[in-house]
């Protein structure tokens, strides 16, 4: 395992937030497996990706920083959906019904989407370079609404660096960690309630954590 800097060079603006690299790698390795929030979370020992990890109390945390996004200009886009109720007259009379546009799959919405014009996103990890490159080669885009063309990755680079900044850059917190395991003297963090290991969305992963700020 080596100290590595992973860079996604973007050819299109980034929509929403960049992903945690450990979560992205596990997702790419498990595309053929279904998962649902109602199911129990998998054992933490599962998820074979080429990153080092260590136990911090009850949590098996990957040596991977949160995404680092440099200064950039920002804007807001919107994505919308609307059920075309004005075409209801085209239906046969016995097929016409009341359509609820406030809930279910016919719900109409217009939601804001944060857009950042950034040319690269960086992660610092401890891992194996060659297997990382093979997985990332299959990742064409990152962020939200990639089907709209956002977050297009022109190329990935994985290079060796001198320092291990996967968890801390000197005394600055670099990724979510369990609150109980935070060393003394660390700066640049805030308390939160969420996950510090993937899948980050699963309620069984939620605990008291600290996140970079």
Q: Profile the largest sheet.
A: 4 strands, antiparallel
Are there runs of 5+ residues with pLDDT below 50, and where? none
- Based on secondary structure, the structural category is mainly beta
Task: Write out the strand line-up for the largest beta sheet, numbering strands in chain order.
Answer: 5-8-1-9
What's the helical proportion of residues?
A: under 10%
Q: How large a portion of the residues is in β-strands, by DSSP E?
A: 25-35%
| CA(first)-CA(last) distance | 28 Å
What is the approximate shape?
globular
Task: Specify Rg, calculated over alpha carbons.
Answer: 21 Å
The structural domain count equals 2
Oligomer kind: single chain
Give the ordered list of helices and strands.
EEHEEEEEEHEEEEEE
Tally the beta strands: 14
The overall average pLDDT, rounded, is 90
Number of helical runs?
2
How would you summarize this macromolecular structure in one to three sentences?
By secondary structure, this protein is mainly beta. The chain contains 2 helices and 14 strands. A hairpin with a 2-residue loop joins strand 10 (168-169) and strand 11 (172-173).
How would you summarize the topology of this molecule?
Elements: E1 2-10, E2 14-15, H1 21-29, E3 53-56, E4 59-62, E5 68-69, E6 73-81, E7 109-117, E8 120-127, H2 129-136, E9 153-160, E10 168-169, E11 172-173, E12 177-178, E13 189-194, E14 207-212
Antiparallel strand pairs: 1-8, 1-9, 2-7, 3-4, 5-8, 6-7, 10-11, 12-14, 13-14
């Amino acid at each position: 395992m080596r100290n590595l800097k992973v860079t996604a060079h973007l050819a299109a603006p980034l929509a929403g937030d960049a992903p945690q690299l450990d979560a992205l790698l596990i997702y790419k390795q498990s595309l053929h497996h279904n998962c649902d929030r109602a199911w129990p979370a998998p054992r933490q020992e599962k998820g074979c990706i080429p990153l080092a990890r260590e136990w911090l109390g009850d949590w098996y945390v990957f040596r991977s920083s949160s995404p680092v996004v440099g200064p950039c200009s920002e804007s807001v886009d919107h994505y919308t959906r609307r059920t075309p109720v004005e075409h209801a007259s085209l239906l046969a009379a016995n097929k016409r019904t009341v359509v609820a546009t406030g809930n279910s799959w016919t719900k109409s919405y217009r939601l804001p989407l944060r857009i950042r014009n950034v040319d690269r996103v960086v992660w610092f990890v401890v891992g194996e370079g060659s297997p990382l490159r093979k997985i990332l080669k299959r990742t064409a885009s990152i962020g939200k609404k990639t089907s709209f063309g956002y977050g297009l990755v022109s190329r990935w680079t994985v290079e060796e660096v001198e320092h291990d900044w996967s968890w801390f850059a000197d005394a600055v917190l670099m990724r979510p960690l369990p609150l109980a395991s935070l060393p003394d003297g660390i700066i640049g963090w805030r308390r939160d309630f969420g996950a510090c290991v993937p899948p980050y969305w699963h309620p069984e992963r939620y605990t008291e954590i600290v996140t970079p700020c």
